[in-house]
Backbone:
């Protein structure tokens, strides 16, 4: 499974749903309590998991503009069926270049899930300034924050996690990625731009029975560690074998750190 494949996005979705921070979600929903409609732009929508997670927290009449550069994912995202009057429009766009066009028109909310750790500092700065110039609220969820806690522990876990975090900072199409520092950087940028920010953790808590996602994560982390050449490949292979044996024995659990935030321009709260 590749990083953005429909199969991987489907596998992670139930973990994302459980992980989304309820306080941050409530803060977002409270903005719409006395409204009867919401117009939302979801950046890097993938197969539509943000619409599925947020739709029941928004007024019944919703218009979503779903933005991604993967046409196959956009088609999946727009095929969802929702209760209420929910309209979904696909916007095929490479967000690494001229993303400002998606902020034109009537918008009540910008959303993004599992996007900000992919972007660079200059991209985040441009994004935050554009949003602040339009005084738009932002809900950004599931930004990876660098924490990987595995149980039972293994002597190589820290070295692998450090290699993974090094890989997270490589270019994901937007310039050198912020990776684990993305959420903290975004929160302080929005605060500096006059926003009030509600934030909290949205960690994946992956249980011993969740074999499939554990095996996918382990393979992904081992590949990342190999790519950055931080450790001898034989050490990585041996670590992977030991960890997969723990998964097979039904004793492996994982916590993967993420952060959610909701940022609103102070005057409209
Ligand atoms: C980790 S996935 C998250 C998808 C979705 N938001 C979710 O939470 O399931 C990252 C998404 O970013 C999209 N993406 C990556 N680079 C992009 C770019 N340059 N322009 C637009 N979308 C991009 C991918 O196609 C993918 O759908």
Residues:
């Amino acid at each position: 499974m590749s990083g953005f494949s429909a199969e991987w996005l489907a596998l992670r979705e139930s973990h994302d749903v459980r992980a989304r921070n309820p306080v941050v979600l409530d803060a977002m929903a409270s903005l719409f309590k006395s409204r009867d409609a919401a117009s939302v732009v979801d950046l890097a929508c993938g197969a539509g998991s943000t619409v599925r997670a947020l739709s029941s927290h928004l007024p019944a009449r919703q218009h979503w503009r779903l933005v991604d550069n993967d046409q196959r994912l956009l088609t999946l995202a727009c095929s969802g069926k929702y209760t209420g009057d929910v309209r979904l429009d696909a916007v095929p766009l490479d967000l690494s270049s001229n993303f400002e066009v998606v902020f034109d028109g009537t918008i009540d909310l910008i959303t993004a899930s599992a996007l900000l750790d992919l972007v660079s500092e200059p991209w985040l700065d441009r994004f935050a300034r554009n949003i602040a110039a339009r005084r738009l609220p932002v809900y950004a969820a599931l930004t990876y924050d660098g924490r990987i806690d595995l149980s039972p522990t293994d002597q190589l876990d820290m070295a692998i996690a450090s290699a993974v975090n090094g890989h997270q900072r490589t270019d994901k199409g937007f310039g050198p990625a912020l990776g684990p520092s993305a959420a903290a950087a975004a929160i302080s940028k929005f605060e500096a731009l006059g926003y009030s920010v509600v934030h909290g953790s949205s960690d994946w808590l992956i249980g011993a029975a969740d074999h499939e996602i554990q095996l996918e994560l382990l393979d992904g982390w081992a590949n990342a560690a190999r790519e950055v050449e931080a450790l001898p490949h034989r050490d990585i292979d041996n670590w992977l074998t030991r960890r997969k044996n723990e998964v097979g024995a039904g004793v492996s659990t994982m916590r993967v750190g993420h952060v959610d935030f909701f940022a609103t321009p102070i005057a409209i709260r």
Notes: The chain is about 40% helix and 25% strand. The pocket of S-adenosylmethionine is lined by residues 4, 9, 44-46, 49-50, 68-70, 73, 94-96, 113-115, 173 (CB under 6 Å).
